[in-house]
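Figure caption, in words: inputs first, then the predicted bound structure.
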Amino acid sequence: MSDEIESPDVLKRIRIVLSAENTGENAMQIIAVNGSPHGMAGNTGTLLRAVLDGAENAGADVETFSLANMDVHPCRGCNVCHKTGECAIKDDFQAIRNAMLKADAAVLASPNHIFNVSAQMKAFMDRCCGLLHCQALNDKYGAAVVTSGGGGEAEVEKYLLRFLRAIGCWTEGSVGAQTAQLADPARVAAVMESAQRLGADLVADIRERPAFLDQEREKTAFAERMKHLVISRKDEWPFEYAYWRKTGRL
Ligand SMILES: Cc1cc2nc3c(=O)[nH]c(=O)nc-3n(C[C@H](O)[C@H](O)[C@H](O)COP(=O)(O)O)c2cc1C
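Bound structure (flavin mononucleotide present):
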């Protein structure tokens, strides 16, 4: 990306088509991970549902994982994933990881829990550390959904989007809402409409395969960092080194 580019907001909608348009012959798969302790019945689940409705109406198949009903333990920092490609903790993480690797796009949803994602979502994100080193979601697409009691959702949305880019996705965007908005009949329709639009835009990304110029520099710099990390640890982390080589990026 050139140095003259200064305005990410203006550039947000500029897309470079990476490959031929998806003709619809292959089903478009989106997975959603909801980190709300209230599952799909809570505020976050309600807003996420609207995003997924938008995606389904636009032609995608959607699979939702609700961490409230699942067992995803916190990372132990044992580094086994870096060495072998498999997490040492055997729980529900593997099912989500496998679905995410097969899908075209991921939607991550969380309530704001004290300026950050919920502990459930953070545990899931930490368990993705091996995927992050491998840039395993390279060139997939992502979006985020956040609700809050009274504010701060934008900060959490930004964090989730940064994480999605760090594991390799291009991010379409996010939607956030506060409890009062969701409970107000005069305001809820507008929030739900932008959530549905986000879902539809994510499907358009899968079809058109754009690169977002405003994300390119950040993504490239982070991928380079991961590549050098993996090279510097190639004897300790043979799986990750082999993965980078196998994918032809090393
Ligand atoms: C542990 C905890 C921490 C929270 N921290 C914040 C906060 O820092 N700021 C805020 O506006 N709301 C906060 N909330 C409120 C939730 O973000 C809000 O009610 C959200 O919509 C709940 O979504 P859910 O129904 O999907 O759980 C917190 C709630 C909990 C349970």
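Residues 36-38, 42-45, 111-115, 147-152, 179 surround flavin mononucleotide (CB under 6 Å).
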